[in-house]
Amino acid sequence: MPKKLLISIVFILTLLTGWGGSTHFTTANAATDNSLTKIQKKGTLVMGTSPDYPPYEFQATVHGKTKIVGMDVAVGQKIAKDLGVKLKVKSMSFDSLLVALQTGKVDMVISGMNPTPARKKNVDFTHLYYQGGYSIVINKSDKGIYQDKDSFTGKTLGAQTGSTMYTESKKQTSNTKVKGMTSVSDLILALQNHKIAGVAMEKPSAQAYVANNKQLAMIPSHFNLSADDTVAAVAFKKGSTALVNKVNHSVDQIKNQDLVNKTYLPAAGKYLKTNTVNTSMWHYWKAFLTGVEYTLIITVCATFFGFILGVILSLARMLQGNPLKTAIRWLATAYVEFIRGTPMMVQVMFVYFGLGLIVNLPALTSGIIAIALNSGAYVAEYIRGGINSVDAGQTEAARSLGMSSGATMRYVILPQAIKNIWPSLGNEFITLIKDSSIVSIIGVSELIFQSNIVRSDTYRGVAPIAVIMVLYFIMTFTASRILNHFERKMQHD
């Protein structure tokens, strides 16, 4: 790697890490705790949760609209009401919840979360609002084979990534492979397809899945658990002492009046029964249509801005001459190499959570920005290759006619370059249709996100996946036909 390029990359990484460090320093040294007044002034309380864990939190169709319900949502509503603010529920994967809390994307996390010592180092917890236990869900046909966690020797046991079930399954089983997934519905699907032998989860959730799926059964786990591993509490950002103290009054009322068992769980059970009344895929056409809409919005916007960025980067990479142009060329090269050398998923999370420390971007906007930044790096290389493929005589002819270098590039070189790389640009567009699914990890309601909603609603694992496969194919095939049409027109011209 050229020495100048290496120096540029190190410089960029230094800026990024330095920015992150200075932000942490500022946050850690905040002198005043205005957490309570900030929420009351804002008038809303944003609750982060992972709605794939009935009866704690899950998706349900209410009056034709999909909403997040469950006993944890009822807890959040009680807290918001006592604070005199409006509750807003934000959905994301379980292992992203604490990051979202620390970066200010959500105000609190209620997701059946255990207040373990490791978590207490990073966030503040309220008093406990519920105490349960662990069970293991298995296929009903295997009920005579497995009795508890010690029966899975030589087998694979699943658990949700980032949960205490995952940690304890790894600690307390021997000769057992523990497989983690971000979604419990994915784990249940893997169980039914015999990819794993069992799923460790909270007892109420296990009961919910078994009650609504006749192919499943539940066995005791016999995990050796501490008090912190079987309870649930509300998480807040570290240092939110005033807010936590205020919320503790609500949590204590919930615990003392046993509202979870007497009110919240029975209400969640009614939603669970409603979900299984009509589990046909046609019943959820609005959810799939919403997913298609968001997928196309992300793809079109990311393609547009990615193309503009790609043109700028490709031209920057071809600059020659004075030291300023050389510096710009090396910076553009460093950007392209850095983006192409890191996974898009990491870039999406960095834009949403990392930049969120400076400006609170919505999930959809963050997803579009991240995918556009990623696409721009690849488009830059396509365009640079297209420009290099244009015969040098074209430039000489244009300049001999008195055209400036800018006009030559705009009216002579770029049109021919675009024509040469059109198939590559079309392939990039089709790829982005599929890659847009990555933004589901930050809670954007695209097609993958909506399919998870339907799976959580219906307890059907394969049918929603089959539907979105068909929808993705329709979108990509249609886009391919349109792009081929314009390609033929360009060749004819």
From TrEMBL:
One of its GO terms (biological process) is amino acid transport. Residues 1-30 form the signal peptide. It is a multi-pass membrane protein. Keywords: Amino-acid transport, Cell membrane, Membrane, Signal, Transmembrane, Transmembrane helix, Transport. The chain crosses the membrane at residues 294-316, 350-373, 462-483. It is found in: Cell membrane. Residues 292-480 form the ABC transmembrane type-1 domain. GO terms for molecular function: transmembrane transporter activity. InterPro entries: AA_ABC_transptr_permease_3TM, ArtM/GltK/GlnP/TcyL/YhdX-like, MetI-like, MetI-like_sf, Solute-binding_3/MltF_N. It comes from the Bacteria. CDD domains: TM_PBP2. It holds the Pfam family BPD_transp_1. Belongs to the binding-protein-dependent transport system permease family. HisMQ subfamily. PANTHER family: GLUTAMINE TRANSPORT SYSTEM PERMEASE PROTEIN GLNP (PTHR30614:SF20), MEMBRANE COMPONENT OF AMINO ACID ABC TRANSPORTER (PTHR30614). This is ABC-type amino acid transport system, permease and periplasmic component.
